[in-house]
Amino acid sequence: MLCDDVKRVVYFFLDGSLSEQKAHDLTVHLDRCPDCGARTTIHRRLRNFYVHRFRADSAPTHLKIRLTRSIRAIQTDL
Q1: Rounded to an integer, what distance in angstroms lies between the CA atom of residue 28 and that of residue 11?
Q2: Can you tell me the distance from the alpha carbon of 59 to that of 32, in angstroms, rounded to the nearest whole number?
Q3: Three-state SS at 16
Q4: Phi–psi pair at 53, nearest 5 degrees
Q5: Distance between CA atoms of residues 60 and 77, nearest Å
Q6: Residues 6 or more apart from 44 whose CB is under 8 A from it?
Q7: What's the pLDDT score for residue 19?
Q8: Are 8 and 39 a contacting pair, CB within 8 Å?
Q9: Is 13 within 8 Å of 26 (Cβ atoms)?
Q10: What are the sequence ranges of the domains in the chain?
Q11: What burial class does residue 10 get, using C-beta atoms within 10 Å of its C-beta: 0-12 exposed, 13-18 middle, 19+ buried?
Q12: Which has the higher per-residue pLDDT, 67 or 52?
């Protein structure tokens, strides 16, 4: 795997959605490439921050209704 490949698939790797073989190839690359390893560590920390900070709490009903109306209004204007 090349550095450009890592850049394209790092978020899939962090989400656990890469195939087993591609995840293995990426892990091997990260072990050998300090730049990609450091970059992936930063991406992992950012992802963990966002996952914990913005949990899947449900939005209030009034907000959902307002957003739905806004989206429909935008779609009709297009």
Answers
A1: 16
A2: 43
A3: coil
A4: -75, -40
A5: 26
A6: 14
A7: 94
A8: no
A9: yes
A10: 3-77
A11: buried
A12: 67
Q: How far apart are CA 5 and CA 51, in angstroms?
A: 24
Q: What is the pLDDT of residues 11-62, one digit of tens each?
A: 999 999 999 999 999 999 999 999 999 999 999 999 999 888 887 777 889 9
The pLDDT of residue 18: 93
List CB contacts of 42: < 8 A, sequence separation 6 or more. none
Q: Which residues lie closer than 8 Å to 64 by C-beta, 6 or more apart?
A: none
Among 33, 53, 57, 42, which Cα is nearest to 11's?
Answer: 42
47 vs 51: CA distance, rounded Å: 6
Query: What φ, ψ does residue 2 adopt, rounded to 5°?
Result: -100, 165
> What does the pLDDT read at residue 78?
64
Place of tokens 């992936």: 40
DSSP state, residue 55: -
